[in-house]
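To the wet lab folks,

You asked to see what we're planning to order before we commit. Fair enough. Below is the target structure as tokens, and below that is the sequence we designed to fit it. If anything looks off to you, flag it before the synthesis order goes out.
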């Protein structure tokens, strides 16, 4: 529009405003998106206004540039959406150096950028009103696929595996991704429902989402420890094959539902799943009829495993029913006062700024580090008289992240992508010499780059380079010189990002992972207490149990992410990594056992809790409290550990009394299965709590 009306600078300012506000347009509640885009617009107007008047000596420019960078980056303390607003502000700061308006006053240019941001806000809101279901469908679709991947990985873990540790790590990664999608869906489905009232569509999608959460819980659940199941499947491989086929079909059906989410007639038939379950039932019954007394416990184990798969089948059937657009009754709706407890509200208290003005804050150190890197990058560009020194600081802003591992990966991918893009662009400019084709290729490359930025950063960097070069090819006749400076500036920016991240106020994960372990353990402890209380009192499942379940999954996922960041750091900074990895695995195993108990007691009528149950749960709680107490005093940055071997207090665990009493007092197979599963989980939880006590006792305590 600006070109056709001969108002190029006005059109460019509007374009910049819309472009800089776009990062805040991520999945979530409409109100949150609107506020995010609006704040981005306000920030870029202020930054563009200030940047426009920075025609001062370099001696004054450098501290102002560093101060502005720090302040904008520091906004990230207010969460993920705030970090995107911060990114918009940083882009505006960099481009205020790149573009100086010739025909517009600075205030006019800044206001037009704001108008561009408001224009983008209007378009984003209009698109949401036209297609309000789009983000729900997209996020739900991705959650289906990730859940299917999770099930498929669990399938591979059945039976003895030489690469079990790799599969466990893969599971942790998938669980972290799933929890992120769950958080987004909670915001979309619960907050939107609260603001707009009951919608049949939203309520059905919310119920589908709940089924997906329960599928994850049941998939995480493991009614027995791996050692026992490995031995059984080694001796009876037919069960391993049967269970793997069944879980594989679950995974296949979830993917098929994701592909045809609004076409229920194309959903796969339940017949295949029903036949797979029937085959398992027959094989297990045949195993029982062989009448080996010593194998009765194994029979109960298989039955409990089968029961869990039957529950998965029921959940998938319910998902298919819900996606078939049935009319819901009042009993199907979930009350809003219960739902709001599942939403974590972001703290926007101004005091958060003061609390984070410390080197204990990761965001504070990142903001300071980024400010120094930006000043150094701009200084290098001026000193060596580069064509576009702002490309260096743009590279720094795009690459540098609070974590070392991600910054290192992005630096490498950015350099490789830029070199590939430069080679491709060099070849194309010798073949093409048409500014209109350059413009078309530049826009197309930019669209592809943004579509791939989350999935493949290396490919995204390649297309960003192509886009920049083709756009500059329209303005600059010496395109090869543009390519040369683009490569040099990018390489300097990437090297600068990595160097400052490595040596300037580094935030190594071992300094914070103790808090992640503590948070995960606290969440697991609260979940365990909710389960044991519900098992003793019975009645309706309390909302507090489900909230504690959500928190346990979330904190365990956060712990996995923290450990993965630590594993990407230099070996010299991986203090006690073997012991920390063991604590991470124990926390995951603990959650797996809790999920087994939770799933069972919610889906089956259970007997009265025995004295042994109360005694054991009290002992496990006591162990967990001791571990939490010890974690408060542990500093993982210290290399010393206690040489003495920790000896836990003696406890006479009733090894077989629970199951033997149940079997001797009743002929009910249901009671036998309950006794076996409860005992297995209690014994496993007790063992894990003892392991955690021993591990945490190894570290030097003040």
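Sequence we intend to order:
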């Amino acid at each position: 529009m600006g070109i056709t009306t001969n108002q190029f600078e006005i059109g460019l300012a509007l374009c910049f405003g819309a472009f800089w506000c776009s990062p805040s347009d991520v999945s979530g509640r409409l109100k949150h998106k609107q506020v995010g885009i609006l704040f981005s617009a306000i920030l870029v107007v202020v930054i563009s206004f200030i940047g426009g008047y920075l025609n001062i000596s370099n001696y004054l420019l450098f501290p102002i540039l560093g101060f502005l960078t720090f302040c904008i980056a520091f906004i990230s303390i207010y969460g993920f959406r705030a970090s995107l607003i911060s990114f918009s502000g940083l882009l505006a700061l960099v481009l205020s150096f790149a573009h100086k308006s010739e025909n517009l006053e600075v205030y006019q240019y800044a206001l037009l950028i704001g108008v561009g941001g408001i224009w983008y806000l209007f378009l984003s809101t209009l698109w949401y009103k036209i297609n309000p279901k789009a983000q729900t469908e997209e996020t739900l679709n991705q959650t289906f696929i990730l859940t299917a991947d999770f099930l498929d990985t669990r399938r591979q873990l059945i039976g003895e595996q030489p690469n079990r540790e790799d599969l466990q790590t893969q599971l942790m990664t998938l669980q972290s991704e799933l929890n992120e999608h769950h958080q987004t869906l909670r915001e979309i489905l619960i907050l939107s429902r609260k603001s707009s009232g009951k919608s049949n569509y939203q309520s059905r999608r919310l119920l589908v989402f709940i089924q997906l959460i329960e599928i994850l819980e049941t998939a995480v659940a493991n009614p027995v420890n791996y050692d026992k199941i490995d031995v059984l499947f080694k001796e009876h491989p037919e069960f391993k094959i049967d269970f793997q086929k069944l879980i594989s079909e679950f995974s296949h059906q979830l993917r098929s539902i994701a592909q045809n989410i609004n076409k229920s007639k194309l959903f796969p038939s339940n017949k295949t799943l029903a036949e797979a379950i029937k085959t398992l039932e027959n094989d297990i019954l045949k195993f029982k009829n062989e009448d080996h007394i010593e194998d009765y416990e194994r029979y109960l184990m298989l039955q409990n495993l089968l029961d869990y798969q039957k529950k998965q089948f029921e959940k998938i059937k319910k998902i298919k029913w819900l996606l078939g657009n049935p009319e819901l009754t009042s009993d199907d709706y979930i009350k809003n006062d219960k739902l709001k407890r599942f939403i974590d509200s972001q703290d926007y208290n101004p005091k958060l700024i003061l609390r984070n003005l410390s080197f204990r804050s990761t965001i504070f150190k990142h903001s300071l580090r980024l400010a120094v890197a930006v000043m150094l990058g701009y200084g290098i560009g001026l000193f060596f008289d580069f064509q576009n020194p702002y490309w260096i600081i743009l590279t720094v802003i795009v690459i540098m992240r609070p974590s070392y591992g991600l910054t290192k990966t992005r630096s490498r991918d950015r350099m490789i992508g830029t070199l590939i893009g430069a080679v491709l662009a060099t070849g194309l400019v010798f073949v093409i010499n048409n500014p209109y084709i350059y413009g078309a290729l530049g826009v197309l490359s930019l669209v592809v780059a943004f579509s791939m930025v989350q999935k493949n950063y290396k490919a995204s960097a390649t297309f960003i380079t192509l886009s920049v070069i083709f756009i500059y090819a329209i303005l600059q006749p010496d395109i090869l010189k543009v390519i040369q400076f683009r490569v040099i500036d990018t390489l300097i920016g990437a090297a600068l990002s990595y160097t400052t991240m490595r040596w300037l106020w580094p935030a190594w994960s071992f300094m914070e992972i103790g808090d992640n372990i503590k948070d995960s353990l606290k969440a697991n402890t609260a979940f365990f207490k909710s389960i044991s209380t519900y098992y003793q009192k019975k009645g309706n499942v309390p909302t507090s149990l489900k909230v504690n379940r959500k928190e346990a999954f979330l904190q365990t996922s956060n712990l996995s992410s923290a450990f993965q960041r630590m594993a990407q750091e230099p070996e010299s900074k991986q203090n006690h990594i073997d012991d920390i990895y063991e604590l991470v695995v124990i926390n995951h195993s603990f959650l797996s056992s809790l999920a087994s108990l939770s799933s069972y007691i919610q889906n089956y009528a259970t007997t009265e809790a025995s004295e042994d149950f109360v005694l054991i749960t009290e002992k496990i709680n006591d162990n967990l409290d001791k571990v939490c107490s010890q974690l408060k005093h542990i500093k993982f940055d210290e290399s010393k550990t206690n040489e003495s071997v920790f000896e836990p207090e003696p406890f006479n665990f009733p090894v077989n009394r629970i199951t033997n009493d149940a079997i001797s007092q009743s002929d009910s197979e249901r009671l036998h299965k309950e006794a076996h599963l409860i005992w297995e989980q209690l014994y496993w939880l007790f063992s894990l709590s003892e392991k955690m006590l021993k591990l945490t006792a190894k570290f030097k305590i003040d």
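Structural context that might help your review: The radius of gyration is 29 Å. The mean pLDDT is 81.

Thanks,
Computational group
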